[in-house]
């Protein structure tokens, strides 16, 4: 399958080395010391970390993280015994419409720590991993802006977007003149709908850890069905 999941591939090892020279916050320096694999590394040799956030909303300029779910995995295994989940207290009031979606209430966050108090643990869990998300315009941007508000330094890291992979797959399987003539259109690329196409079980949505696990399983299924273990990581990371 043709692989083109966004902008031209970034040289992430080079970027990490450059960021390491500029970073002052020690936990962030340790994060950048764990340089990503070289771009030609087969995906079968890469360590991944599925990541999902629940937030106060989708406006990355003002909304904040309220839960974080992380689960490490490889192409063949998901390490649930090393999964992490945190609830954190945002610096803004919860919005009623977001509470309806994720079910996290004011009582749930009343005694929760600020992100400042757990960020070292989050960075340690991310260290040396390639992040995998479903819809890249949330986790990386939200974490970058949250860190800038707290430690005056942002964060950059490679990630793989299972939504974008599925979007490309759907465009290819529904493309062509005959499919257009028959009225075939790309199927939904939402997490739950995408999982169903690979016969993965339905999970309750909008829980950060559950969604992280669901994303890891989806990525494994996508790789098994459409790609090979020898495909290089730079074909997928963004």
Descriptive account of the structure:
It is an enzyme of class 2 (transferase). InterPro entries: DnaQ, Ribonucl_H, RNaseH-like_sf, RNaseH_sf. This protein has 238 residues and is of the alpha/beta class. The chain has a single domain, classed as Ribonuclease H-like superfamily/Ribonuclease H (Nucleotidyltransferase, domain 5), CATH 3.30.420. It is 42% helix and 12% strand. Helix 6 (136-151) links the parallel strand 4 (130-133) and strand 5 (159-161). The protein is globular, with a radius of gyration of 18 Å. The model has no long low-confidence stretch (mean pLDDT 91).
Which structural class best describes the helix and strand composition?
alpha/beta
CATH topology descriptor: Nucleotidyltransferase, domain 5
Biggest sheet descriptor: 5 strands, mixed
Task: State the end-to-end CA separation.
Answer: 18 Å
CATH class: Alpha Beta
Biggest sheet, spatial arrangement of strands: 3-2-1-4-5
Instruction: Name the overall outline.
Output: globular
Specify the CATH homologous superfamily: Ribonuclease H-like superfamily/Ribonuclease H
Sketch the topology as an H/E string, one letter per element: HHEEEHHHEHEHHHH
CATH architecture: 2-Layer Sandwich
Beta-sheet strand percentage?
Answer: 5-15%
How many structural domains?
1
- Count of alpha/pi helices: 10
Instruction: State Rg.
Output: 18 Å
